[in-house]
Specification:
Elements: H1 2-13, H2 25-37, H3 43-50, H4 57-68, H5 75-86, H6 94-115, H7 124-142, H8 160-176, H9 178-181, H10 189-205, H11 212-220, H12 224-233, E1 236-238, H13 245-256, H14 259-262, E2 265-270, E3 285-289, H15 309-329, H16 331-344, H17 360-387, H18 392-405, E4 420-424, E5 427-436, E6 442-447, E7 450-457, E8 462-468, E9 471-472, E10 489-492, E11 495-501, E12 505-509, E13 519-523, E14 531-535, E15 542-551, E16 555-563, E17 568-575, E18 580-587, E19 590-593, E20 598-599, E21 605-612, E22 615-620, E23 623-628, E24 637-642, E25 647-657
Parallel strand pairs: 1-2, 2-3
Antiparallel strand pairs: 4-5, 5-6, 6-7, 7-8, 8-9, 10-11, 11-14, 12-13, 13-25, 14-24, 15-21, 15-25, 16-17, 16-24, 17-18, 18-19, 18-20, 21-22, 22-23
Length: about 650
């Protein structure tokens, strides 16, 4: 009878001592042949031998291990083993079969480690087989049936005692292969995916209970922010051990403020190979994130604030997950965001953040990432662009806040509206009392003591205007430093720049060096030739110093500069991104080099330009350019210049009398 069979199977599983028979050599040979052939229709024959009620559990494990250990684990063999444990008529014997399969596959894994004990990281086929073994154990055994995020599926027929035995075997295996599998120390990149899969399998295999997450962290020797993520949320953060704890803590803080991304998340894998040839398995979502150095998330209008490039890149990936889940939940918001993303049309000057792809999830995810980096700056940048007749950024700000509000920070209902936490330099601030339009986009919120409103007109919900504390937003109300704005005068750190020609947008912010001047950012507008802003030099002879970077179009600095009817006159250091840097005379007739150009620097470079009498010398990194000035350039101002779409930044801009 079924009841009797279950009782007998249970007795076998718990080690009944009445079993006194043993498999014959012929029967052991049959098991090996059937496992080697891996034909699913033969699984029942192996089951009849391995799960015999007259065998001890140890004998069943030994018989199956002897057959599994010598042969490579393949997809076909995985199908065979699944049929063995979960096929027809297996319910009564499932506990003993599951334990035997777990121990047999771990024996196969041990054999691989033993074979490549000196250089596993240089054996990609071995690594891939090990990942496949642990992945199969996770998907087929640890997550049999339909488990929840916190518990196994009791109807799968695997009792808690079996999971305890299986997890103990896996723990012992991790201890035996601790060099590769235990802890969060540094391992080769080629092995990091392997360790991630082994660890998440142990987490998922543990029996249900209040201390399960703590037990997992203890057994795996996970420390710091990684441990906190595992014990609080059941989320394993795995990498090659090269991301320090401070960066992981920053990721944890971001994830704490993205409950939409955190929901049903099982594994965050930070590695070079995004997905690889062998997908990682976990009970919850596996998030592949890129631990690369990422540029400041705001399009080049905002001078970079305090942020870590590596943790920022990981936070960006998590923000995309949060965006996707919110847009999946709110179909009207998805439709609105698709229209707003299309209106921005991939234009960095209209997007919020730096989308990695054109899909709406990436566009809204990039906006969420900007809010997680510096919410007040994201608001200021969006509304500054709105004042400059570019409403698309404000629309994406509205969409991103709506997406965040779909999974608010607080579960408690607030009559004034949901609240979400946003980044603010190295701290956090709260956007509260969020008001939502019928389509889910945010049209009002309170941030840093001010009530902001974004006017979006139904039915298209285009952004018409914005208000702060009930009054139309003006440029003077936008407080974030370094956000370039149109105007005629900009002042910071004792320097005042005025527009010399064209339609530049300029932002100044206080530099990190108190002995140097401000950080200057100029964005070239639509004028022909150079847009320019000028500052008076301290005398006819002087030295200019700073760290210069030019992106997207030619730009640089000009000295003895003045405007002409057609453009600009002066001696200029002009950097062409991806081209050359030249010391040149600029006038209405064009540009004339004073010295042989040098290769254009690819990133920020220290510059020192000295003008003394008719002589000019520009030191650019390790290169020096010299020339003699004509009499027409005996006097003039200092200017920061940029052609159309140029992004010119000078950190620590300083002028000193020579």
């Amino acid at each position: 009878m079924r009841i009797g069979g279950i009782l007998v199977g249970a007795a076998v599983f718990f080690g009944a001592t009445s079993a006194n028979a043993a498999l014959t050599s012929s029967e052991k040979g049959q098991i090996k042949d059937f496992v080697a052939g891996a034909r699913a229709e033969n699984a029942q024959k192996v089951r009849a031998l391995v799960a015999r009620t007259d065998l001890t559990p140890e004998e069943s494990v030994a018989a199956l291990s002897a057959a599994v250990t010598p042969v490579a684990f393949t997809e076909q063999r995985g199908v065979f083993l699944k049929e063995l444990a979960f096929g027809g008529a297996s319910a009564a014997s499932r506990p003993v079969l599951v334990l035997a399969e777990v121990k047999a596959l771990l024996a196969r894994a041990d054999a691989i480690y033993q074979r490549f004990v000196g250089g596993l990281d240089h054996e990609p086929r071995a690594v891939q087989e090990l990942i496949a073994i642990y992945g199969w154990l996770d998907a087929t055994i640890a997550n049999a049936g339909n488990p929840t995020s916190t518990s196994h599926d009791g109807s799968a027929g695997i009792p808690a005692a079996t999971y305890e035995e299986c997890s103990r075997a896996l723990r012992d295996h991790v201890e035996q292969q601790a060099r590769w599998l235990k802890g969060d120390g540094v391992v080769p990149e080629t092995v990091s995916r392997l360790r991630a899969q082994a660890q998440v399998t142990l987490v998922d295999m543990l029996p249900d209970g209040l201390t399960r997450r703590v037990d997992a962290a203890d057994r795996l020797a996970i420390k710091g922010a990684r441990r906190t993520m595992l014990t609080e949320w059941g989320v394993l953060f795995a990498d090659a051990g090269k991301i320090d704890d401070a960066k992981v803590e920053r990721v944890r803080q971001v994830l704490a403020r993205l409950p939409g991304a955190r929901r049903d998340l099982g594994l965050v894998y930070a590695g070079d190979a995004r997905g690889g040839t062998q997908p990682l398995r976990a009970r919850g979502l596996v998030a592949y994130v890129a631990p690369v150095a990422e540029r400041y998330p705001f399009a080049d209008e905002a001078t970079p604030g305090a942020y870590d490039a590596t943790s920022s890149a990981i936070a960006h990936d998590l923000a995309v997950i949060a965006a996707k889940r919110a847009l999946d939940k709110l179909t009207d918001l998805r439709a609105q965001a698709e229209r707003d993303a299309a209106a921005a049309a991939g234009d960095p000057s209209r997007l919020l953040g730096r989308p990695r792809a054109p899909s709406v999830e990436h566009v809204v995810g990039a906006a969420i990432h900007a809010l997680m980096t510096d919410g007040p700056r994201a608001v200021d940048l969006s509304l500054a662009r709105l004042l400059g007749s570019r409403p698309e950024t404000a629309a994406l700000l509205s969409d991103a806040l709506g997406a965040l509000a779909a999974f608010p920070s607080s579960e408690e209902a607030d009559a004034k509206g949901p609240s979400v936490e946003l980044g603010k330099a190295n701290a956090w601030t709260t956007a509260s009392a969020i008001r939502l339009a019928p389509n889910g986009a945010a049209i009002g919120f309170t941030l840093d003591g001010h009530a902001w409103a974004i006017d979006r007109a139904s039915p298209t919900y285009v952004v018409l205007a914005a208000r702060r504390n009930g009054q139309p937003v003006s440029a003077g109300q936008l407080s974030a430093k370094g956000v370039p704005r149109e105007g005629s005068k900009w002042t910071d750190s004792g320097y005042t720049f005025t527009k010399l020609r064209g339609s530049p947008r300029v932002g100044l912010s206080t530099g990190s060096d108190t002995n140097a001047g401000p950080n200057v950012k100029l964005l070239g507008g639509g004028s022909e030739g150079f847009d320019a802003v000028m500052v008076a030099p301290p005398g006819p002879d002087f030295t200019l110093e700073g760290e210069l970077v030019v992106r997207d179009a030619p730009g640089g600095v000009a000295l003895r500069a003045s405007s002409t009817k057609k453009g600009l006159r002066g001696v200029a250091l002009v950097v062409t991104p991806g081209g050359r840097a030249a010391l040149t005379i600029v006038d209405d007739g064009g540009e004339t080099n004073l010295a042989a150009p040098i290769e254009s620097p690819s990133g920020p470079v220290a510059v020192r330009i000295t003008v003394q009498g008719a002589n000019v010398e520009a030191v650019v990194g390790k290169s020096t350019l010299k020339g003699t000035l004509p009499e027409s350039l005996a006097k003039g101002d200092v200017a920061v210049i940029g052609k159309r779409n140029a992004n010119v930044e000078i950190a620590g801009f300083t002028l000193k009398r020579k």
